[in-house]
DNA sequence: CTGTTAGCGCTTTCAC
DNA sequence: GTGAAAGCGCTAACAG
């Protein structure tokens, strides 16, 4: 098996020096190389199937163009997927390549997997233990901690949006359907904080918080107190909301007459539920834009791509509210 | 800002040579270095916050330990997420680090993004254009094309499992709910092929294929012919199945008395639907194991981790069948 | 305008 | 047992 061609091979093939090859292939500015030479070099490269070595380039330049997203522990749904796609596109505009590392149940520390990759920056969706953050810093890797403490308090806004919508629709009192999955506790706490803040401002009474498991029977028990009286239920996300709906149905409760329900995420199943689920959708593109800004800032650069403005959070009103 | 410490710094700090540092930090075998020296080196490294440079290591060793998963065009749900986590764990056992690149709507070619990363191997979930595959090969990057042509024809087995289950439950004739999203056509084709093959073997008549959009009203139109007669509906996935259910409900059809429905994926919403959706679950762990085997083979290594045996595909019978 | 050259930080023979 | 030194493939000063 013939070893991969190097820039020296290309130089030999084209009858120029390695430097010229580098200049031509990188379109280095302020370098006046005649078009014929350029063509010769490019042809030679193509003929040999030359691909530059990332390792060598990174070593030489002293910086990588890779951004690593560390995915959280919890099951990633379509929202996270979409957000990553958007973020990838935003970063690509700045010449950065985004890759994601799925949560490692083996518990490989963040610094470890960053160490195997050598990214310029690490983006975490939830939050990183302090010692992990320090390890990254020591390795000269920028760190962006997202969402939770992130741009504009997205998670709290989500909670506020649920409450505002519910009250607008005539909810008499407020309840919160807390997720059974302990891995999302951090997010649930923020969203609930948003709910409580909005409830307080509106002068509503306290919020009745109950844990709702993703199982119709268990959910039925949990929602027993919400079957009537126009209680406005804020669910942690659409799945929990679907469970609330299933539970309410067991009791024969009427939605939205007796209880109103609103989820978060706008997963495909929300529109297909019966009755169709109202939900809070996050503008993933805008969120990704903010994250891209944070990455650029951490890297000491400025974004070239546009930063999306507008509301981050939007209520999709359907039949359950 | 002080520049990152190098192995030379550690050597100086510990009063040894760079070679010794390398030996100690890498636990190089067949090297008899006294424990005191080892401790001294490790302490020095810790004190300086030394982290080796991936780029330099990769350059020197001539191979990377990174495996890049190229995610498909379509919205990735929890199944893909779980599979990646499993695959990551399986590869980690072989000292490999998995990262994923989200689909880039900017259409950056696979070879491009691989070129920015320098992975040892690329795994694609769907399939790669031939010229892209060639470009990877030229760069000396191994390629594993997954799922579609992959291990044990998973997609076809999914279709077969749907049919077998439906017939067992007394379906009189078969129908297929085809997805409206063109991006998943490749997968839909395979699954439908499995359905047709199983139907033929069972001597059932032809399969009534209809495209079902993810919208109750549109779905209602599509499923008009399936409202009675114990038609067994194989849906492309759980979301399409949910749409079928929504459509059937518009017609007031009884499930499973008039029509039986089975989805694919076992998303959380499936268990919470009313009636609860029957579905085909793929053993993501086993699938990841197969993929890990393929990666190891492509890299000329042999897996150390165990290869999960057992059925790849399993029917989760709930209320709709 | 193009070529020569000096490293980037690391691993790994080979000599002491 | 430990160290000196060569070089992986590339880029960017600096000569020519």
From TrEMBL, chains A, B:
CDD domains: HTH_LacI
UniProt keywords, alphabetically: DNA-binding, Transcription, Transcription regulation
Pfam families: LacI, Peripla_BP_3
Keyword Repressor among UniProt keywords: no
Domain (HTH lacI-type) ranges: 5-61
InterPro entries linked: HTH_LacI, LacI/GalR-like_sensor, Lambda_DNA-bd_dom_sf, Peripla_BP_I
UniProt key word Flavoprotein: no
GO molecular function: DNA-binding transcription factor activity; transcription cis-regulatory region binding
Classification via PANTHER family: LACI-RELATED TRANSCRIPTIONAL REPRESSOR, LACTOSE OPERON REPRESSOR
Name of protein: LacI family transcriptional regulator
Organism: Motilibacter rhizosphaerae
């Amino acid at each position: 098996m013939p070893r991969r061609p190097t820039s020296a091979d290309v130089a030999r093939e084209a009858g120029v020096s390695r430097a010229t090859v580098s200049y031509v292939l990188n379109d280095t500015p302020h370098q006046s190389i005649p078009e014929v030479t350029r063509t010769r070099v490019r042809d030679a490269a193509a003929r040999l199937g030359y691909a530059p070595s990332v390792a060598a380039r990174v070593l030489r330049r002293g910086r990588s163009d890779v951004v690593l997203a560390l995915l959280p522990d919890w099951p990633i749904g379509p929202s996270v997927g979409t957000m990553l796609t958007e973020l990838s596109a935003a970063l690509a505009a700045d010449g950065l390549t985004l890759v994601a590392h799925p949560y490692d149940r083996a518990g490989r520390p963040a610094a470890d997997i960053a160490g195997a990759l050598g990214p310029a920056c690490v983006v975490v969706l939830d939050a990183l233990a302090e010692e992990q953050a320090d390890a990254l810093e020591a390795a000269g890797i920028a760190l962006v901690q997202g969402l939770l403490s992130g741009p504009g308090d997205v998670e709290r806004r989500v909670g506020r949006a649920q409450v505002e919508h519910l009250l607008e629709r005539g909810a008499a009192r407020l309840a919160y359907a807390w997720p059974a999955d302990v891995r999302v506790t951090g997010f649930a706490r923020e969203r609930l904080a948003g709910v409580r803040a909005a409830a307080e401002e509106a002068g509503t009474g306290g919020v009745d918080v109950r844990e709702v498991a993703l199982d119709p029977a268990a959910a039925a028990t949990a929602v027993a107190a919400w079957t009537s009286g126009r209680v406005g239920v804020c669910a942690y996300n659409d799945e929990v909301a679907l469970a609330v709906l299933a539970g309410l149905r067991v009791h024969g409760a009427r939605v939205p007459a007796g209880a109103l329900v609103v989820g978060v995420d706008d997963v495909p199943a929300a529109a297909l539920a019966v009755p169709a689920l109202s939900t809070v959708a996050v503008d993933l593109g805008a969120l990704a834009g903010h994250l891209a800004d944070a990455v650029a800032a951490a890297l000491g650069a400025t974004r070239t791509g546009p930063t999306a403005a507008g509301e981050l959070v939007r209520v999709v009103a359907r039949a359950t509210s």
